[in-house]
Write a structure and sequence with these properties.
With 195 residues, the chain is mainly alpha-helical. It contains 6 helices and no strands. This is MOB kinase activator 3C.
Length: 195
């Protein structure tokens, strides 16, 4: 339920070209701090949109590969160790921060992000359609919640990641994510404390 098909960019669109640039840079072995910088002449909102969708795909895949180890029994609370507990709020079904198990939280999170990135009013894909004024605030909320997936995976399931041989991939994904959110100040530094 938490594993989703990858969101794709339409070939021939500006976002597809930006996505190809980002992927080529990542595969070239360049410094990740440099890779996340906005390419000259590109729109900041397009760059953020491409990365939010890409991080959603990657983090969803990471969680999906180890979700069999994250169950109601092993993770009855969505947390990052003893010090950090994450509660779900979506302003529709959960109007107040609500304690959920990690699998429930992950399911709600992935559904919520998928709904947002597929919403043309928030993530427009047509040329000439502007991003909404609150676009970067929405992305901040998405990225903050995706960061919590890293926190949970690293603190509670990293042994499973190592046993699967996925440590290098998860670490690279995390570094890319971290440099990106720091480059554009998209996640409050207090949220970053667990890692």
């Amino acid at each position: 339920k938490t594993f989703r098909p990858r969101k794709k960019f339409e070939p021939g669109t500006q976002r597809f070209e930006l996505y190809k640039k980002a992927q080529a840079s990542l595969k070239s072995g360049l410094d990740l701090k440099a890779v996340v910088q906005l390419p000259p002449g590109e729109s900041i909102n397009d760059w953020i949109a491409v990365h939010v969708v890409d991080f959603f795909n990657r983090i969803n895949l990471i969680y999906g590969t180890m979700s069999e180890y994250c169950t109601e029994k092993t993770c009855p609370i969505m947390s990052g160790g003893l010090k950090y507990e994450y509660r779900w709020q979506d302003d529709s079904k959960y109007k107040k921060p609500t304690k959920l198990s990690a699998p429930q939280y992950m399911c709600m999170l992935m559904d919520w992000i998928e709904m947002l990135i597929n919403n043309e009013d928030i993530f427009p894909t047509r040329i000439g359609v502007p991003f909404p004024k609150q676009f970067q605030q929405v992305c901040t909320k998405i990225l903050t919640r995706l960061f919590r997936v890293f926190v949970h995976v690293y603190i509670h399931h990293f042994d499973s990641i190592i046993n699967m041989g996925a440590e290098a991939h998860v670490n690279t994904c995390y570094k890319h994510f971290y440099y990106f959110i720091r480059e554009f100040s998209l996640v409050d530094h207090r949220e970053l404390e667990p890692l």
